[in-house]
Amino acid sequence: MAAVASASSISSAPWWQRALPHVLAVMFFALLACVYFSPIMFDGKTLAQHDITQFQGGAHEAQQYAKAMGKEALWTNSMFSGMPTYLVSLHFPGDWSGYLQKVMTLGLPAVVANLFLALLCGYILLVALGVRPLVAVAGAVALGFSSYNLAILAAGHNTKSLALAYAPLVLGGILVTYRRDKWLGAALFAVALTLNIHVNHLQITYYLLLLVAIFAVIELASAVRAGRLPDFAKRTALLGLGAVLAVGVSSGRLYTTAEYSKYSNRGPSELKTPAPAAPGEAPAPKTEDEGSGVDRDYAFQYSYGIGETITLLIPNFYGGASSMPLGSDSNLGRAGLPAEYLNGMPTYWGQQTYTAGPVYMGAVVCFLFILGLFVVEKRTRYWLLAGTILSILLAWGKNFETFNYLIFDLLPGYNKFRAVSMALVIAQLAMPILGALALSRIFRARAAAAPVAPVLPGTKPALAPEVAALLPKLLYAGAITAGICLLAYVASFSFDFAAPIDGDLTKQGFTPQLLTALRADRADLLRNDVWRGLLFIGAALGVLYFYLRGKLPLMPAALVMVALVLLDLWGVDKRYLGENKFQRETIAEEFQPSPADQQILRDNDLNYRVLNLSNPFNEAQTSYFHKSIGGYHGAKLRRYQDLIERQISPQMQQIFAQNKPDAAPVLNMLNARYFITPPSEKQPQQVILNPGALGNAWFVSTIRPVKSPDEEMTALNTLNPGVEAVVDVNKFPELKATSFEAAGSTIALTSYSPNELQYRFNATHPGVVVFSEVYYADGWQAYIDGKPAPHFRADYVLRAMQVPAGAHTIDFKFEPKSYSVGNAVSLASSIALLLALVGAGVYVARRKTAPADRTDVAPIA
């Protein structure tokens, strides 16, 4: 076969000829994304994404305000009685990176664009490393179609998906900077990190930086050994400058997020005593974590089982998802279970309380990853192997507590995150990259090999030494990967396939025969995937073996490898994001007001709250139409979470037990005017008017001083919020008096918007007003008759202020400095990044040499 063209001959080819393979690759990725999401592209359907639906509910008030007023709503009352919109729905006009994202996604719809971006960024990474376009396509498919990517889209975790999509681009910039062209690499890194941070999923960015840290340590060690430390420092400084630009572009979002994190439930409660136990339950233990992160048990709630790691190779080893469809020909179907129940059976029998599906890397990718451990350049091999191992250890969470509890306590910032099983995204990046580099090594070896001797008639040509050395390594990788599959198959005959949920099934009427059939189905799912994996491993091994032996040309071999990677992952992905996940109904059509909503909406008062008694703190349907006591968000205010746990939830139970809607003083002070009851078989949702709701603001006659958050919370148990207020005087020492004359004083809300509230009051004497609005120190400013006036926190979460006698106007305006300052920095950084990109473009246009400024290291691919 013809030798590979030299770099000089390639660079002398016409530009269109050099660009054509990349254009075809991009078109192929767009086609793949459109075909996978064909119900969206061609049938007019939408993807039923639970979290996106909830997001639309919670963001509706802010979005409507921005649309009507032409400016952002920085606060919303639609969820949890009020919270900043920083992590709900907020646009920073100084951040221009969103325009770049629109260009890169070619105008494709959401989720289709996510998959396309994952493929595109994976391809750019591998091409930047010198991988052939077809091999880069195979690697991009492996990165883009990893099962976790599609499973999180099914759940609605779009920002997580975008952060993962941009991660290969970040790695590409770093690798090009250190191993090839420092200027182009730094420019690529700055853009990639900007886009990654822009989508605002900091946990994914954190895991990406862990992988980068491992690379930096290995690269530093190599630089020291080779005497290249000054060069390493220069390249690192360039990357540091790119990181500063990237952080600067998103500084508005990062600044507001950092500010909010101090007050959110991602930090510890100020309360030191445990919450009282419900009747019949043991008291909750006092948390050991007094740091600044989430509770350890909360963080490790979703930990990947140690045995479940094998799902990287065998997806249905533990039964797949918590709810999987089974056919009529399944064991359960043949046992007589009605077809309507077969659509969602609990086939999963692992340790997690719930899973939407396993993390599957692909049998072909796992085989190539093992091969990469034999054939890829050492520094790259060690880096990606170390990242994969760390990823698995972190994902085990509480199942490997000796290691993970230490990491949780010591690694800076790590205790801000939960769902540690997400750490497998590091392996999701490392394994396909190493696999693609291994594939590139195989294809390059034979293409570059020269004949070792003239071939005599009637004899077979001798293999080049490099090719001959690769053949046993190829067979080792195949034997190891296939051997793991066969061991899993043999071991499966010793499993009982019992799951924790089986006891509940028995209580619900599952007979012993049906339970036996379900466990038989779990066994079949495992064993079928073993044979499936062996088939793909054998096919990939055969293609590469015959290629190295000279029996298969390069182009067909590369095309078959692309097809094998794609078919392997596509088939498993469709189990978790298949046709049944799409619907005709749009998100807007999902938010149709119920009769209960319509009844409440007849109330034209400016501001009141609604409590949906049906799972109120895990739904945002109510938030779409009303200002809700509840909501759906992973980072609500910490003090409000305390109030939910210790006051609101118990008082909800009192409402049910006593059938007295006004027997809930904390709900009254939150101005919960309406309760929506859960629907039942006997009656639909009902609306209950709460006669005890205190309204938007009221004068109190007594201040009950306390000296700690615990005393503050305890005082709420006996508080009559209409006449007295609880104030922590250690935090608000300026409050001197404790009694006031409130008789005859009146106050009313006269104007409402999310960012600004105006009240008119007439006080017979100087007094204290309590507002049914959530206190948030870093942003809300109070004014009396246009002049700044102090306010303080009362009743654990509410705003209050001392007011003078007479008729006056009070304005509350949400004016956080973090937004204005952060947005200004974002704008300046966006301009600087744009200038840097223009400079990089000029550099590329003028450069006439090959794209490398390093000659002291071997090429990566």
TrEMBL record:
PANTHER family (alphabetical)? INTEGRAL MEMBRANE PROTEIN, INTEGRAL MEMBRANE PROTEIN-RELATED
**Keyword terms of this UniProt record:** Membrane, Transmembrane, Transmembrane helix
Q: Where is this region: Disordered?
A: 266-294
- What domain of life is recorded for the organism? Bacteria
Task: Output compositional bias ranges, type Low complexity.
Answer: 274-285
The UniProt entry, under InterPro entries, shows:
Uncharacterised_YfhO
Q: Name one Pfam family in it.
A: YfhO
Residues crossing the lipid bilayer are 20-42, 74-94, 106-127, 134-155, 161-178, 183-199, 205-224, 236-255, 354-375, 382-399, 419-439, 474-495, 530-547, 554-572, 824-845
- This protein is called what? YfhO family protein
